[in-house]
Amino acid sequence: MKVEHEVKLGRNEMSTLRRTCGFHLKRRKENTEPRELLGLEPVSLLIRRGRLRWFEHVEQKDGTDWVKRCMMMDIMGD
């Protein structure tokens, strides 16, 4: 995920959490307060965990699987 996409996702997430909790920007609450109140983790962290879980799954495959072979492929270049 690009940094700009992660920033937009985080901004949208915080906006949604503030509305869910009934917080307004005028009240100047910290961004961690709605997340702690609802007991949620940042979406970007959940996405990273999912990617690592997928990577671990691919790493455990045997060498004959096409996904594993594609990962280990040497590409000739300039």
Walkthrough of the structure:
The chain has 78 residues and is an all-alpha fold. It folds into two domains: 1-40, no CATH class; 45-73. It contains four helices and no strands.
List keywords for this structure.
78 residues, mainly alpha
Q: Please mark out the parts with pLDDT under 50 across 5 or more consecutive residues, or reply none.
A: none
Provide the number of structural domains.
Answer: 2
> In this structure, how is the largest beta sheet organized?
none
Element order: H for helix, E for strand: HHHH
* Estimated radius of gyration: 19 Å
Tell me how many strands there are.
0
- The N- to C-terminal Cα distance equals 27 Å
Task: Give a short summary of the structure.
The chain has 78 residues and is mainly α.
Write the layout of secondary structure elements.
Layout: H1 3-21, H2 32-38, H3 43-59, H4 66-72
Helix pairs in contact: 1-2
